[in-house]
Structures are given as C-alpha cells and as structure tokens.
Amino acid sequence: MKILMFNNEFPPLGGGTGTVNFELFNSFKNFPELKIDLITSVAGKKKETEQFSENIKIYKYPVGKKNIHHASNLELIKYTFKASFAGFKLHKKEHYDFVFVWASVPASFPALILKIFKKIPFLIRISGPDIPGYEKRYNTVYKIISPFIKFAWKKAEIIITKCKAEKELVLGINPKLKIKTIFNGVDTEKFYFEKKPDNQKLTLVCSARLIKHKGQYILIEAISNLKKQGIVLYANLVGEGDEKDAYIKYAKEKDVPEQIFFSGYVPREIIVKEYQKADLFVLPSYNECMSNSLLEAMACGLPVIVTDVGGTEELVDKKNGFIFKPGDVNALTDILMNIHQNKEKNNILGQNSRKKAETFNWNHIANEYLKLFNDLNH
Asked: Residue 372, exposed/middle/buried by CB under 10 A (0-12, 13-18, 19+)?
C-alpha cells in the first residue's frame, strides 16, 4: 500500500501535529505492508531527503523558515506550491493508492490537485485550528480560507478527528461528512513515572506554546494569589512563543518572578525529564482537543489540572485530576490550594493518570490507522 503524506511541519519544526506524525511513523515503520512518502518543510535553504525507515521516506523543502515553532502565511504559501509540484512528480513515479493530509491548511491544496487531475483519493486529519471559528485569533483568516476548507472536506474520502468535541465542531459545519475519530497517543515507554525526593518544593509544569490561548496568564495569577495567602508554589513553563516576554513581565508585576521558571524549547528526546521533576501538570488552555503534553504528563504519573475544553472528557476525571472553566483564575487558585493542603492524594491521582495513559499507547493508535487505511484501499 503506497501512501503520500503532506504535512508542512515535522520535528524539529512545528508543534503537536508534527509530533503526532513523528510518533506514528515510529509505529508505521514496523508495518512492512505500508510504503509512505512524506512531503514537508525544512529550516535550511536546501532541499533535504531523509530515509526515516526502510518503508518511510521524507522529502523536506525549504520555505524560508524564520521560526521553527511557527509558520508564517508566506511560508505556508511557499509550502503549498512546492508540495503540489513535488507530489505530482512523485506520483508519476510511485503511483500512490491515496493521500493523507495532516491539517486542512495548507496540505489540502496539493491533495486536491492530485484528486482533480489524477483521481487519487485523500483523507484529512483535522488539527484543531483548521476548523473555522476554532480560535478567535484567526477570525480574519477564517473569513478568507473557510470556503476552501469546506470544499476540501467535502472532497475528502474521510475526515479524521481526535476527540468527540472536535467531531461535533466539524459536523456542525457539514453534517454530511464521513468522520472517523482516532485519539492521539503517547509513548508509555519513553514517558514514565520516576519517584521524586521527599520534602521537595511543590512544583508544577506547563508544557505548551507561550501564546495567549494557552492561558499561562491565568496560571501566573493563580500562583500570585496563593503567595498572598502564604502558599508558595513553583511553575516550570516549557515552550517558546510570542507571549514569552509579556509573561516574564507579568510574573514580575504579580510579584512571583522567582516562582515562575521559563525553560524555553526542550527537545522531544529529553522533555520527559521536565515532567519527572514536577509534582503536577497544569494546562489552562482556552482551546484544546487532545493535548500531546497532557498525555505525556499522565504517562509520567502526574495529577493533571486542565480546562473544560475539547478532549478533556476523554482523558481527565476526578480519579486523575481536576477540571475548571477557561479563564477562571479563582477556580484554578482553589484547586492548587486543595492540592497543596492534600499532598498525600497526589500519589493516587498520579497512579490513575498513568493507568489511563497506558490505554492510549501509540502502537494501539497506529493499528487503528492501519485498519482505516485498509478499509480505504479496498
């Protein structure tokens, strides 16, 4: 079975979508019946080719990258055209059975070209922000690209969503679409629990891009509220983003600069250590579906505190963590105070997090994709 994939990001470029792509490749390399070619971007100025495994090859095209964590509109446009030409050329040689699109924008465009001119079917895996209206910061862009996204969805053989909430959003736009929900996964061997020294300071970790909709402002304010009540907690913010300088300034304004540590970007191969150093995980996001960071923290045996958005209901309940409404700083403050006062409960919550994470092992998720591929190819 020959599959052509389009994804404008792949580690070290990008965020969650690239990470999922990478992790699935680690499982797909054990499926000899699959031959996969991926067309993606590269940070350098020259085209690169990587033989990921015997059955997976990656073609990386330069798009003038300025920031490895974000893609500008110009970079997305460059990728669209380069991927379209590259896909056409590769198909002439390989004769693919179908195309897999990672996120509706920009990867749907080259897939549509192959569909129209070469009759190759394609499927789309939704990323979250490619759902019109999903993020307020993209409202202006949605007005321009929504017609294209809806057209691409209509032409796709199937749409893949990561959680119930994402599926409902997509069906709300077009109830006639054929949708398959496949959760994100986690490497439970790479991400594991490690016992911490006793009597250490209570430390939480938040692994996410430093951007407004991830809600780190709320976390900083909650820690400040607790300090005023004589409770000192420490937070490790892992990640980079446009709001970093603003967050550093805000921590100073809230009189907690010594309690907020900015680790910056941490490579995937060592990020497990950041979870293992912490006592709990917090993700105060305004928008989320099935967070890779949340799954990783759970696999490391951490109690988790998250907002009531997206795929929260599939991952978090009273047995392994706490849920609060986005932007509710008072609720987050109360939860952190409760945890501080009942530290012995953390072990039980953490153990339950680990047990639930084990049901989301990547090998299991990869087999769901393989079944979908087989169904599509028959």
From this structure: middle
The set of residues, in sequence order, having a beta carbon less than 8 Å from that of 198 and lying 6+ positions away, is none
What does the CA dihedral 30, 91, 77, 19 come to, rounded to 10 degrees? 0
pLDDT in tens, 89-134: 999 999 999 999 999 999 999 999 999 999 999 999 999 889 998 8
Q: Domain 203-360's class?
A: alpha beta
Q: Which amino acid is present at 237? A: L
pTM beyond 0.70, yes or no = yes
Domain boundaries defined on the chain: 2-185+361-376, 203-360
Cβ-based neighbours of 243, under 8 Å, separated by 6 or more: 210, 211, 212, 216
How do residues 196-246 score in pLDDT, each as one tens digit? 776 678 999 999 999 998 999 999 999 999 999 999 999 999 999 889 999
| 324 in Cβ contact with 302 (< 8 Å) | no
The CATH code of the domain at 2-185+361-376 is 3.40.50.2000
